[in-house]
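Backbone geometry:
***
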Amino acid sequence: MKNQIEIIEKFILRKLVKIKKKYKNFNKKKSFFDQSMDSLDFMKLTFLIEKKYKIKFSSRDFNKIQSINNVVKFIKKKL
């Protein structure tokens, strides 16, 4: 279980850096937007996650996935 969490976290962190290098030091607990992520980059990240894990985010889900930790929990529930 913990290994799956680490794999998901590493994937998200790698994709964040791929989107923009300035995202390399993201805090897993803080909101993406509190760490200067803009909405376009957030959408890019969600598309990459959807593609990788074959899940879909609805507009209602966006409030639930505001940090890396929240995204990991959300993905685990969907898998």
Remarks:
- The chain has three helices and no strands.
